[in-house]
UniProtKB/TrEMBL annotation:
<dbReference type="InterPro" id="IPR011992">
    <property type="entry name" value="EF-hand-dom_pair"/>
</dbReference>
<dbReference type="Pfam" id="PF00254">
    <property type="entry name" value="FKBP_C"/>
</dbReference>
<protein>
    <recommendedName>
        <fullName>peptidylprolyl isomerase</fullName>
        <ecNumber>5.2.1.8</ecNumber>
    </recommendedName>
</protein>
<feature type="domain" description="PPIase FKBP-type">
    <location>
        <begin position="64"/>
        <end position="152"/>
    </location>
</feature>
<dbReference type="GO" id="GO:0003755">
    <property type="term" value="F:peptidyl-prolyl cis-trans isomerase activity"/>
</dbReference>
<dbReference type="GO" id="GO:0005509">
    <property type="term" value="F:calcium ion binding"/>
</dbReference>
<dbReference type="InterPro" id="IPR001179">
    <property type="entry name" value="PPIase_FKBP_dom"/>
</dbReference>
<keyword id="KW-0732">Signal</keyword>
<feature type="domain" description="EF-hand">
    <location>
        <begin position="499"/>
        <end position="534"/>
    </location>
</feature>
<keyword id="KW-0697">Rotamase</keyword>
<dbReference type="InterPro" id="IPR018247">
    <property type="entry name" value="EF_Hand_1_Ca_BS"/>
</dbReference>
<comment type="function">
    <text>PPIases accelerate the folding of proteins during protein synthesis.</text>
</comment>
<dbReference type="InterPro" id="IPR002048">
    <property type="entry name" value="EF_hand_dom"/>
</dbReference>
<feature type="domain" description="PPIase FKBP-type">
    <location>
        <begin position="288"/>
        <end position="376"/>
    </location>
</feature>
<keyword id="KW-0106">Calcium</keyword>
<keyword id="KW-0325">Glycoprotein</keyword>
<keyword id="KW-0413">Isomerase</keyword>
Length: 584
């Protein structure tokens, strides 16, 4: 209603040029007659009452700005002659270029968005002595109640304000990146038109590829994951003259409060960051290794989605064999035991566009903080490192069958203590090669000299395997520090007693102490103990001598009648020889 009259219109039948000359004449006369006097004469200029001023005013209306506003227009007696509210349409127009009556042009200058003003426009700044036929009488003073809802200029650019900047920024948004973000969208006056939060999911899109309005494409550039921004977009970089549906009117400036969740590029690879590297890393994980590790898994904005610590159990898997997502397969290779590293995995190397479950959304970048506990290869042998050699020259070393006594400390590779012989005060005892200890420890003890100290790294397939044992996790690599305390030479397989020299020529006579032709257990035991005491023979080490002698007696008592006769008595060497002949 208050735009300048278009060239094609006439008022009261006057051509446009005549009308303009008439208005200028009226205004000149008005200015000459309308100066305010002490008695309250006619107004010279617009009277402005700012009855609501917003707390913040980032910009004020200037000449040449494009504004959108609502108004009610009345006469002095309160009678309404026009209202934008009645048409449910804002006035959208450029200020200060003659498209509005002079009084409105002046009354809008310096106005803030959401400011409310009452304007009193004298006739010479309104429609003068002519008025508008059937609507505004001549020489009418006009009263306007105005609220400004939007202001922008063709010279405007996208305005970006950082509301929160994260302490750590692994990367910033660039053209062609794929982003996931939340937003609240409002008009410049604060009217909400859309929000991603109401849909329960982020807005996911490419940047700089034409999928977004131009202003949002520009406003997202340089953003960090976790950053919050306020982005103000002028309409010519948003939805322009057409607006969008019923929620975004034409020529509307848009305000977005944006939280960037994550960003990646389809060309991204796995990113590695070493957080802690233990000294003395002699081996790094390769494809085919079996690894045990702890992890915290989070999205790029820090949202935790999973943690092995919460289950109090490591994640155990083969590396490089396709058992885990490709990005983790790549990220674990090259790690050292005990290393802590951060692995950032783009979605095309994680769970892709679909995500998984209810905690990992589609197209999500995943960040894993990993602590490698241990790893091994199914083909690994026992690793042996001599910590200190024996104090004296060693000519004989431990071998299968030997009875050994040793001290040990056993731990996991991360230093977690499991067992120690020192806790019991006495050394551990074992016969090597007799399946009395785990295979890897048995192997590591062989070849040791008394007084020697060794470090043994035992892979799980030579320890307690996938199932583990009491206090030992499944698939755990074990670290032993062992010291050989003593060694007794063992006996050949199957023997309980051996002679140091040839046995007595008449063995039965020696056993039959009372010469009654029978040898009970008591006589048998007395004779064997005497042989051991005199250094003529020795029993199997590491077992109760009484039990060993009882087993020997039972082996000779063929008919189990509690005594040995000359016919029953046979040396094991003779038995073995007879068995060879039988086989031949």
């Amino acid at each position: 209603m208050f735009r300048a009259v278009s060239p094609s219109h006439t008022i009261l039948g006057l051509p446009l040029l005549q009308l303009v000359l008439l208005l200028l004449l009226v205004q000149a006369v008005g200015r000459g007659l309308g100066r305010a006097s002490p008695a309250g004469g006619p107004l010279e200029d617009v009277v402005i009452e700012r009855y609501h001023i917003p707390r913040t005013c980032p910009r004020e209306v200037q000449m040449g700005d494009f504004v959108r506003y609502h108004y009610n227009g009345t006469f002095e007696d309160g009678k309404k002659f026009d209202s934008s509210y009645d048409r449910s349409t804002l006035v959208a127009i450029v200020v200060g270029v003659g498209r509005l009556i002079t009084g409105m042009d002046r009354g809008l200058m310096g106005m803030c968005v959401n400011e409310r003003r009452r304007l009193i426009v004298p006739p010479h700044l309104g429609y003068g002595s002519i008025g508008v036929a059937g609507l505004i009488p001549p020489d009418a003073t006009l009263y306007f109640d105005v609220v400004l809802l939007d202001v922008w200029n063709k010279a405007d650019t996208v305005q970006v304000s950082t509301l929160l900047h994260p302490a750590h920024c692994p990367r910033m948004v660039q053209d062609s990146d794929f982003v996931r973000y939340h937003y609240n969208g409002t008009l410049l006056d604060g009217t909400a038109f859309d929000t991603s939060y109401s849909r329960g999911g982020t807005y996911d899109t490419y940047v700089g590829s034409g999928w977004l309005i131009k202003g949002m494409d520009q406003g997202l550039l340089g953003m960090c994951p976790g950053e919050r921004r306020k982005i103000i977009i002028p309409p010519f970089l948003a939805y322009g003259e057409k607006g969008y549906g019923t929620v975004i009117p034409p020529q509307a400036s848009l305000v977005f409060h944006v939280l960037l969740i994550d960003v990646h590029n389809p060309k991204d690879t796995v990113q590695l960051e070493t957080l802690e590297l233990p000294p003395g890393c002699v081996r790094r994980a390769v494809a085919g290794d079996f690894m045990r590790y702890h992890y915290n898994g989070s999205l790029m904005d820090g949202t935790l989605f999973d943690s092995s610590y919460s289950r109090n159990h490591t994640y155990n898997t083969y590396v490089g064999q396709g058992y885990i997502i490709p990005g983790m397969d790549q990220g674990l290779q090259g790690a050292c035991m005990g290393e802590r590293r951060r692995i950032t995995i783009p979605p095309h190397l994680a769970y892709g566009e679909n995500g998984t479950g209810d905690k990992i959304p589609g197209s999500a970048v995943l960040i894993f903080d990993v602590h490698v506990i241990d790893f091994h290869n199914p083909g690994d042998p026992v690793e042996i490192k001599i910590l200190s050699p024996p104090p004296e020259t060693c000519n004989e070393t431990a071998k299968p069958g030997d009875f050994v006594r040793y001290h040990y400390n056993c731990s996991l590779l991360d230093g977690t203590k499991l067992f120690s012989s020192h806790d019991y005060g006495d050394p551990q005892e074992a016969t090597l090669g007799a399946n009395k200890v785990i295979e890897g420890l048995d192997t590591g003890l062989q070849g040791m000299c008394v007084g020697e100290r060794r470090q043994l790294v035992v892979p799980p397939h030579l320890a307690h395997g996938e199932s583990g044992a009491r206090g030992v996790p499944g698939s755990a690599v074990l670290l032993f520090a062992v010291e050989l305390v003593s060694r007794e030479e063992g006996l050949p397989t199957g023997y309980l007693f051996v002679w140091h020299e040839d046995p007595p020529a008449d063995l039965f006579e020696g056993l039959d102490l009372n010469k009654d032709g029978e040898v009970p257990l008591e006589e048998f035991s007395t004779f064997i103990k005497a042989q051991v005491s005199e250094g003529k023979g020795r029993l199997m080490p590491g077992q109760d001598p009484e039990k060993t002698i009882a087993d020997m007696f039972q082996n000779q008592d063929r008919n189990q009648d509690g005594k040995i006769t000359v016919e029953e008595l046979k040396l094991k060497s003779d038995e073995d020889q007879e068995r060879v002949h039988e086989e031949l």
